[in-house]
Write a structure and sequence with these properties.
heterodimer; A: DNA polymerase, domain 1; 2 domains; about 10% strand; globular; B: Uridine Diphospho-n-acetylenolpyruvylglucosamine Reductase, domain 2; 12 strands
C-alpha cells in the first residue's frame, strides 16, 4: 500500500508514531502544511484526505495508507492559483500567512460540503439540501481554523466571493 | 510516545480478538487517542484501527436506526434519516468540535473519548485520580469552570465532553457491544459510570469488548426537539452547559418530555426526575422551575462552576418554552 500525496505515491513510515503532518513536512518537504498547536485546536495543519478536510496533526500517517492526501501544494501553484488563493490575496485574507494554507484547504472542502447539502450548527431547516452560505454560516463552518493576526474578516470575504462565483 | 504497533482490523470478530491483548487499544479517528498518546496520558502497546469496519446507518426492523460504530460524526449528522427523524442528534453533533474533527471522529470513539479536564491532560505536572488512581485531584481545589456539579465524587469532578452522547441519552439510544462471548446491548445512559472512588473506570465496557453500533429506537411521534449549547465562545468550544430536549404537548399539557444535560456531569445526564415531574401537567413557570430545581437539589458546587446550576435551569427553561411554542 501507499499514501498518495498530491498524486504521488509514498510508502507509509515504519514508525507508526509519525503523524501525517510530520510525514508531509519532514520527509516530503511539503512545508505548506503548518504546525500550529499540534493538538487539534487551531486548524493550521488542515489537509484533505479523499476530499474530506481533516487535521494532519491528529492523523497518524499510517491511517492515511491507501488514501489520497491533498495539501495546499496540490491545490494551486504560484503560476496557477486556486480561486481561493487569488481571493485571499484580493481580500487581504492573511497577515503573517501561517494559518493560510490550512484556511484555504478547509475552505475548499467547506464549499464542497455546502454544495452537497451538509448542514451546520446554524442551519435552521435540516430537511433541505439547499445551503445558502451567509456570512454567519461561513464563520460557523470555518470555526476550526484560527487566525491569530485577526484576518478573519478578509478570510470570510474571500470565501464568500468564491462561494458566490460557484452559485448556480 | 512509546513505540507501538498498528494493524487494521478486517472484521469485528478479529478486532475483538486482537483488541483483547493487554495494552492494546482500538483506534477510531484518533482525534482524542493520538493527542493523549502525544501528551503521555495514554501509552498503548498497539493500535487496532477499526475504521474499515461497517460504517453505515441502516434501518432496523423496529422502525429505528442502527449506526455502525466507525461511522464518522459528520456522516451521521448529514444523513437524511438522522436529519429528518432525529434532528436533535444532528444538531448535537454539529454543535461539537470543528468540521475537521467531525470528519475524523467516529461514533464509537465519541462514546469512549476521555475528559478534557486540564489536570487529567497534564501528565507531567498535575495530580489526577483518573489518570493515576489514588494520586489526588488538582481540579477540586483548582480551576474547575468546566467541571461537574452533579454526579461527581471526592475523587473526581471531570465531565464527559461529548455533545452527541447528550442527544443519544435523551433519545433512549442503546450501545451494541461485541466481546469474546458474543454480543450484548446496554442503554447509553448505563454505558458510562459515575466516578465514585474509581474515576479511572469510565464505562461498563470490558477491555476485551468493543462497541459495534449505536441503536436508536423508533422516533417518538410529534416530538419537538432541539439541542442548545452554552459555551465560552460561539463555536468550537466545549459546553459549559448543554441541553438536549424533546417535548410534545396535548390539550395544553405535557404529553411527553425528554431532557438530558451535557457539561455538568461525569456522564451524559438524563434528567428523569424533571421528565416525571413535568409529564401530564401544563408548562407553568412556577412548577417548571420547581421540577428543574429538584434535579439540582444535591448539586455539589465548586467556586469555579457554581454558576452552572442557574445556567442549566435557565437554558432548559428557555428550551422548553421554545419547544412548547412550536406546539402552540
Amino acid at each position: 500500500m501507499a499514501i498518495r500525496v498530491n498524486g504521488e505515491d509514498v510508502p507509509p513510515p515504519d514508525d507508526i508514531r509519525v503523524s501525517l503532518l510530520d510525514l508531509l513536512r519532514e520527509q516530503m518537504n511539503l512545508s505548506g502544511t503548518k504546525v500550529g498547536c499540534n493538538q487539534g485546536a487551531c486548524g493550521a495543519c488542515t489537509v484533505l484526505i479523499d476530499g474530506r478536510r481533516v487535521l494532519s496533526c491528529l492523523t497518524l500517517a499510517v491511517q492515511a495508507d491507501g488514501k489520497s492526501v491533498t495539501t495546499i501544494e496540490g491545490l494551486g501553484t504560484a503560476e496557477n492559483l486556486h480561486p481561493l488563493q487569488a481571493a485571499f490575496i484580493e481580500h487581504d485574507g492573511f497577515q503573517c500567512g501561517y494559518c493560510t494554507p490550512g484556511q484555504i484547504c478547509a475552505a475548499a472542502a467547506m464549499l464542497e460540503e455546502a454544495a452537497a447539502g451538509m448542514p451546520s450548527y446554524l442551519t435552521s431547516d435540516l430537511t433541505t439540501d439547499r445551503i445558502i452560505l451567509s456570512r454567519e454560516e461561513v464563520q460557523e463552518r470555518m470555526s476550526g481554523n484560527l487566525c491569530r493576526c485577526g484576518a478573519h474578516n478578509g478570510i470570510i470575504d474571500a470565501i464568500l466571493e468564491v462561494a458566490g462565483e460557484r452559485r448556480p | 510516545m512509546s513505540p507501538v504497533t498498528y494493524v487494521r482490523a478486517p472484521s469485528a470478530t478479529e478486532a475483538v480478538r486482537m483488541g483483547s491483548e493487554p495494552g492494546v487499544r482500538l483506534l477510531g479517528g484518533g482525534t482524542n487517542l493520538v493527542d493523549l498518546m502525544r501528551k503521555g496520558v495514554e501509552a498503548p502497546s498497539g493500535l487496532i484501527d477499526v475504521t474499515a469496519l461497517a460504517d453505515r446507518v441502516e434501518q432496523a426492523d423496529d422502525g429505528g436506526l442502527v449506526i455502525g460504530a466507525p461511522t464518522r460524526n459528520s456522516v451521521v449528522a448529514a444523513h437524511p434519516l438522522i436529519r429528518t427523524r432525529y434532528p436533535m442528534l444532528s444538531r448535537a453533533i454539529l454543535a461539537g468540535a470543528s468540521a475537521q474533527v467531525r470528519n475524523m471522529a467516529t461514533v464509537g470513539g465519541n462514546l469512549m473519548q476521555r475528559t478534557r479536564c486540564l489536570y487529567f491532560n497534564d501528565a507531567a505536572g498535575s495530580r489526577c485520580n483518573k489518570r493515576v488512581p489514588g494520586s489526588g485531584c488538582d481540579a477540586i481545589g483548582g480551576s474547575n469552570r468546566y467541571h461537574a456539579i452533579i454526579g461527581g465524587s471526592a475523587a473526581c469532578v471531570a465531565t464527559h465532553p461529548s455533545d452527541m452522547c447528550v442527544a443519544l441519552a435523551a433519545l433512549d439510544a442503546r450501545v451494541r457491544i461485541a466481546g469474546p462471548n458474543g454480543v450484548r446491548t446496554v442503554q447509553l445512559v448505563d454505558f458510562h459510570r459515575l466516578p465514585g472512588d474509581r474515576p479511572d473506570i469510565e464505562t461498563v465496557l470490558d477491555h476485551a469488548e468493543m462497541i459495534v453500533a449505536i441503536e436508536l429506537p423508533a422516533p417518538l411521534k410529534a416530538l419537538h426537539s432541539g439541542y442548545r449549547k452554552v459555551r465560552d465562545r460561539a463555536s468550537y468550544a466545549f459546553a459549559l452547559v448543554s441541553v438536549a430536549a424533546g417535548l410534545s404537548m396535548q390539550d395544553g399539557r405535557v404529553r411527553d418530555v425528554r431532557v438530558a444535560f451535557g457539561g455538568i456531569a461525569p456522564k451524559p445526564w438524563r434528567a428523569i426526575r424533571i421528565e416525571e415531574a413535568l409529564r401530564g401537567i401544563p408548562l407553568v413557570p412556577e412548577t417548571t422551575a420547581a421540577a428543574i430545581e429538584a434535579e439540582f437539589a444535591e448539586a455539589a458546587l465548586l467556586p469555579g462552576n457554581a454558576f452552572k446550576r442557574e445556567l442549566a435551569k435557565r437554558t432548559l427553561t428557555a428550551m422548553l418554552n421554545e419547544l412548547a411554542g412550536d406546539d402552540a
